[in-house]
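Quick one, tokens below. Sequence please?
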């Protein structure tokens, strides 16, 4: 039996830090595990320009604890009015690693998102030209589409046509949740990759709805049927270089989740690696964990992997019922559970 695993320090290729006091509480929890993270721009108001991203980056860096090496990788929030020149300059200057497509209305703070991909075609063409990656929240938002079908319909209506039209655009299909997404990624060229969250590897929709509504299991895209969870586990266990770690860690305070209109988002930052590695052990794929966590992401983004190593050891760790969230407490993913791997300090 494997008792410990030493790998290059991983990165988180998709998460939410928020701002202000919440940000200052959650940044150290990610920096404990990861060397870099792609930071989502869905603040209120959103991070739409290079200047806003540079200022946000400085606020995040100021929240990294003394003596900890952590680099935030910034994204710009695309709107119908995005300026291709500003984004290209921000990318060239190293401020912007990528740009993020939120279909308007798809999720938290996405009201300013893109109403029709046709409106940003000029920006996407420029991004394809300069090799700037596009992060995609892949759900349609039209009310006639059932929430459990929104990802699959997005592939047919938006993503496949986009990839066909701009075959050199580097696309990260983020937090995928369906077998249709796995098939799409498999069949697409090497310029298309996907991130997968710990929660979508662990839970299916029963975990949200059976025996009572569990608001802390609710995120978007919402967890789907078991067959989809199994397809995602198969994808990460396959060892394909097209999949990499992206937690979608999304802090919302307890009262905002336990509400008559609870926010979407699962806060998994405190025990993200412990959560993922369990999946790889269950799938008999521990030998593939380093590529998923530490190699495939940097390779896709054209960055070097981290030199530092971390060790995960087989030892129980108890996940607390609540963790520090700044202004209020946050219930983390796996709250109250005992996980069987622990990050050695
Ligand atoms: O569950 C989610 N929470 N999904 C998203 O796409 C956004 C995120 C958030 O910002 O809370
Ligand atoms: Zn997200």
């Amino acid at each position: 039996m494997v008792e410990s695993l030493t790998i290059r320090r991983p990165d988180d290729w998709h998460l939410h830090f928020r701002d202000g006091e919440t940000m200052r509480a959650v940044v150290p929890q990610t920096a404990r595990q990861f060397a870099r993270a792609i930071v989502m721009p869905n603040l209120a108001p959103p991070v739409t320009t290079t200047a806003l991203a540079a200022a946000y980056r400085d606020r995040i860096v100021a929240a990294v604890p003394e003596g900890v090496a952590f680099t935030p990788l910034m994204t710009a929030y695309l709107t119908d009015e995005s300026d291709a020149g500003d984004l290209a300059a921000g990318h060239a200057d190293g401020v912007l690693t990528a740009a993020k497509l939120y279909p308007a209305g798809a999720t938290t703070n996405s009201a300013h998102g893109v109403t029709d991909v046709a409106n940003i075609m000029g920006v996407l063409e420029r991004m394809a030209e300069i090799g700037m990656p596009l992060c995609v929240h892949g759900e349609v938002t039209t009310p006639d589409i059932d929430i459990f079908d929104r990802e699959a319909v997005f592939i047919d209506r938006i993503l496949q046509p986009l990839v066909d039209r701009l075959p050199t655009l580097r696309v990260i299909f983020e937090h995928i949740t369906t077998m249709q997404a796995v098939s799409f990624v498999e069949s697409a060229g090497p310029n298309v990759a996907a991130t997968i969250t710990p929660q979508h590897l662990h839970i299916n929709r029963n975990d949200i709805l059976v025996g009572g509504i569990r608001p802390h299991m609710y995120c978007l895209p919402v967890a789907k049927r078991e067959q989809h969870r199994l397809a995602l586990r198969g994808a990460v266990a396959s060892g394909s270089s097209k999949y990499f770690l992206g937690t979608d860690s999304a802090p919302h305070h307890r009262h905002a989740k336990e509400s008559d209109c609870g926010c979407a988002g699962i806060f998994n930052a405190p025990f993200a690696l412990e959560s993922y590695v369990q999946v790889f052990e269950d799938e008999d794929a521990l030998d593939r964990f380093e590529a998923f966590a530490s190699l495939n992401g940097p390779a896709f983004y054209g960055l070097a992997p981290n030199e530092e190593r971390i060790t995960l050891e087989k030892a129980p760790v108890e996940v607390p019922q609540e963790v520090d969230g700044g202004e209020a407490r946050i219930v983390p993913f796996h709250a109250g559970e005992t996980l069987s791997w622990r990050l050695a300090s």
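The chain has one domain: 4-343. Residues 16, 42, 107-108, 137, 219-220, 250, 264-265 surround DOR (ligand 1) (CB under 6 Å).
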